[in-house]
Amino acid sequence: MVESVEVSPPIPDVPGAQVGPDVFRQLLRQAVRVADLANAQATRMALDFAEIYRREQRARDEVDAHLRQMSLMEKQATRYAEDLAQMLRNERERRHELERALEQERVANEELRRTGLQGISHLLLAATIKDQTTGSHLLRVRRYVEAIADRLGMPGELVEEFGYSSVMHDVGKIHTPDHILQSEHHLSTEEFEVIKQHCIDGETMLGEARFFETARAIAREHHERWDGKGYPDGKAGKDISLAARIVSVADVFDALTSKRPYKDAWSIATGLASVESGAGKQFDPDVVAAFRALHDDGSIERIRAEVAAASD
Ligand SMILES: [Fe+2]
């Protein structure tokens, strides 16, 4: 702020008045004082200006610092965005690779399945020629097995697996000598021991592929009994695989109700009664109950009629 300076005493303006040395001295002092005050004022203004300049400088520095930080953050954000985009691209590529791998696996599985089914048909051809078993017997057994498995609430893939595996239950008979296999007489103990071997041979013939896992269990265990008095291992109850327990019921029922060289075909009612009398002894009671239910709702009759029509 500018300070006003009062000049005194005033220079006399009376005409003719004497201007003495005192007045000059006074004026000089006054001038010196005014100069001092102006000086102080200028110094204060300079200091104020310097302070304002410093403040502005600080504010500009702060703004610059903020700008640098924002620029840094922008660069970081850009880098993050690029990283994220790269991650998404990688993720998409990985997903595509996974989808390609799954598709390849599906194709391979389908191929394996086709090969497996071809193998089955060759094995069956050999077995039916050897055993004089009819294809329709195997087809009925398969259909009964699938119907029982479905009745027991099993998922569709397992129903199908049990079905195609069931037709290989007697495949080991390829190794059984003809005179024993086709004998119409009562078998001796030694001959019966040879017959038992077809379960073990069947399991061996079916190798180690996962595709034949259920078929191997069925081949090995389809002559086991619920009460443990079966062969070849004397397994009992649920130690016998469910697939084999189901095949056991289906195979025996169809053998009883089919004509063979040494016997006539039993009626459905007689065959069913025989199977039911074996519940808890030869057969799993739950499997027999499911079979009974299939009989009662007409499924057994329907399957027999459909297989007969297909054979014709
Ligand atoms: Fe058998």
In short:
With 312 residues, the chain is mainly alpha-helical.
Describe the structure.
- The protein is mainly alpha-helical.
- 70% of the residues lie in helices and 0% in strands.
- It is built from ten helices and no strands.
- The protein has helices spanning 21-131, 135-151, 156-166, 178-181, 189-205, 213-221, 242-256, 268-277, 285-296, 299-311.
- Helix 3 (156-166) packs across helix 6 (213-221).
- The model has no long low-confidence stretch (mean pLDDT 88).
- The site of fe (ii) ion (FE2) has 5 residues, from loops.
Structural descriptors:
binds fe (ii) ion; 70% helix; 312 residues; rod-shaped; mainly alpha
Question: Helices and strands in order, then pairings?
Answer:
Elements: H1 21-131, H2 135-151, H3 156-166, H4 178-181, H5 189-205, H6 213-221, H7 242-256, H8 268-277, H9 285-296, H10 299-311
Helix pairs in contact: 2-3, 2-7, 2-9, 2-10, 3-6, 5-6, 6-7, 7-8
Bound molecules: fe (ii) ion (FE2).
Which quaternary structure do these chains form? single chain
Strand content: under 5%
Number of helices: 10
Q: What small molecules does this complex bind?
A: fe (ii) ion
